[in-house]
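Worked example

This section walks through a single chain of length 227. The input is the sequence exactly as stored; nothing has been trimmed or padded.
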Amino acid sequence: MATYVLVHGAWHGGWCWRLVADRLRRAGHQVFTPTLTGLGERAHLLTADTGLQTHVADVMGVLRSEDLRDVVLVGHSYAGFVVREVADRMPERIARLVLVDAWVGRDGESLRDRAPEFFLNWIDSVTKEGVIPVAPPATVGVVEPDQVAWLESSLTPHPHRTFSDPTRLSGAVDAIPCRAVLCTPGGPMPFPRFAKEFGWDTTELDVGHDAMVTAPEALAGILLEDA
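Given that input, the structure is written out below as tokens.
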């Protein structure tokens, strides 16, 4: 039995992994899907002061309180920054990392440092009082009516500070095996470049950015290869 910790990206919550988690559990594995502070069912905790370190502490707290070891730690999108820092601080608990269309950086870099200009321009144009409002589901590749309705009822605003806070890495994370799952119609987003830069094994999925919503069977199949 493997232990998976699946960490959602910006605007999402632990809810977004439901279909993937169900498949992993049916295969006999232990699965945790924490929701980061200020998002999902924890949206009432959102403040402009919620930063990257808060979210790193959220996930570290789950690993510590549940005494999880040999973890397959999975991060989607923004959570690439979260899970890499968690792994860097708790490498003895992590068996491998899986980064799904994920933002990543080196020590001292923030997501804003790694983002293309068009993305930053959009973020800056919509952010108000330190909070980024929800984007339409189509921007993450979700167009089926049932899936759109699920996202529209579940997505919540995201704290901007998490995008501007620098990550702090000692280098321990770079010794942990890592796979990058690339959602191929990603257009101008730099996720394939990140994987090449860090030298990670890659797997491509011909789906939009929110693969856990639109292709849970395929994504679960990839994650099961890392059990």
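What to look for: The two ends are 7 Å apart (CA to CA).
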